[in-house]
Each structure stands twice: as structure tokens, then as C-alpha cells.
């Protein structure tokens, strides 16, 4: 429940040089970054149209997941984080929210350099305090009870 992994070495051994990109429309926004990653031998996958099983298989392999201008807590990136992907976003819309996305600053900017660093230093990056807080938040702290308490608090104010 602390957001870390019991067997980090085993997790890392199952990961590939794969980056998942949330939503097709943002793929064009990172064409330059995507090309730099591909030139470095990285598999960049825009996640659209995958079955739940196929998506799970991608999430288990991916070292990095990208999401831009999030309108809420996007399901695919958060599930990927829980499966051990390092999460990068920008400060557009919900990505700027430090309560919902308690990331370290280096994971609030999307650049080929930052992503390549995460790929090459995966075990360090996945255990970054912001990544650990994010996994703890969405993997353990947010649940039916906590959400009901939030609703009661909002209605009561």
C-alpha cells in the first residue's frame, strides 16, 4: 500500500523500451519528440482501439506513459502507472493539479530527453517520490469510501 514494488528487479526485467501515448489527437502534438524516441529505438504506441486484454499486455510492457491536457483522471495512463509505467504529463488542465497528480517537476514536461532518461534509468525513475505518491493515491487511497466522504464534504460546504 505504500506505492512501491516488492520485486522491482523482476518488474524491470519484464519492461520494454515502450512508450504509450494517451489518445490519437495528441500524437500530432509530439511528432518531434516521437520521432526522436523512434530514432533511439523506442517503440511509441498511440493507444486507441485496443481490446482490454491487448491494452493490459501493453501496460505490462511499457516503461513510460504520456498524457496531455487531461480533462480528468484519465483511465489508461493511471492503469499504466499502477502497472509500473513512469507517468509524464504537461501542466495543461488537470495535469497542473498537484493534488490529483502529485508528480515531481521533471515528470510535468514532455521531452525526448526526459523520456529517454526514464527509459534508461527506469528503476530509479519509477521509484521517484512523485511516481510513488501517484501510485499510492490511485492504487490505495482513493476508493468508494474516500469518494463518498469527498461528496459529503463538497455538498456540506
Keywords:
single chain; four-stranded parallel sheet; 157 residues; alpha/beta; globular; 8 helices
Order of helices and strands: HEHEHEHEHHHH
Question: In this structure, how is the largest beta sheet organized?
Answer: 4 strands, parallel
Mean pLDDT: 83
What general form does the structure show?
globular
Radius of gyration: 16 Å
Low-confidence stretches: none
Task: Describe it.
Helix 2 (31-39) links the parallel strand 1 (16-22) and strand 2 (43-47). The chain is globular. The longest helix has 13 residues, at 129-141. It has a four-stranded parallel β-sheet with strand order 2-1-3-4, with helices on both faces. It has helices at 8-14, 31-39, 52-61, 75-82, 112-120, 122-126, 129-141, 144-156, and strands at residues 16-22, 43-47, 62-67, 86-89. Helix 3 crosses helix 4 (75-82). The chain has 157 residues and is α/β, with parallel strands linked by helices. It is built from eight helices and four strands.
How would the blueprint of this fold be written?
Layout: H1 8-14, E1 16-22, H2 31-39, E2 43-47, H3 52-61, E3 62-67, H4 75-82, E4 86-89, H5 112-120, H6 122-126, H7 129-141, H8 144-156
Parallel strand pairs: 1-2, 1-3, 3-4
Helix pairs in contact: 3-4
Short synopsis of the structure:
This protein is of the alpha/beta class and 157 residues long. The chain has eight helices and four strands, in the order αβαβαβαβαααα.
Amino acid at each position: 500500500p505504500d506505492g512501491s514494488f516488492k520485486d522491482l528487479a523482476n518488474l524491470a526485467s519484464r519492461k520494454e523500451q515502450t512508450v504509450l501515448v494517451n489518445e490519437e489527437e495528441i500524437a500530432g502534438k509530439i511528432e518531434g519528440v516521437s520521432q526522436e524516441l523512434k530514432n533511439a529505438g523506442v517503440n511509441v504506441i498511440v493507444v486507441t482501439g485496443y481490446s482490454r486484454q491487448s491494452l493490459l499486455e501493453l501496460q505490462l510492457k511499457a516503461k513510460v506513459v504520456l498524457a496531455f491536457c487531461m480533462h480528468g483522471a484519465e483511465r489508461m495512463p493511471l492503469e499504466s502507472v499502477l502497472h509500473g509505467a513512469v507517468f509524464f504529463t504537461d501542466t495543461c488542465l488537470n495535469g497542473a493539479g498537484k493534488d490529483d497528480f502529485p508528480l515531481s517537476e521533471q515528470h510535468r514536461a514532455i521531452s525526448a530527453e526526459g523520456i529517454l532518461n526514464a527509459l534508461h534509468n527506469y528503476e530509479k525513475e519509477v521509484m521517484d517520490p512523485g511516481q510513488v505518491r501517484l501510485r499510492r493515491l490511485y492504487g490505495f487511497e482513493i476508493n468508494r469510501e474516500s469518494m463518498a466522504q469527498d461528496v459529503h464534504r463538497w455538498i456540506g460546504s
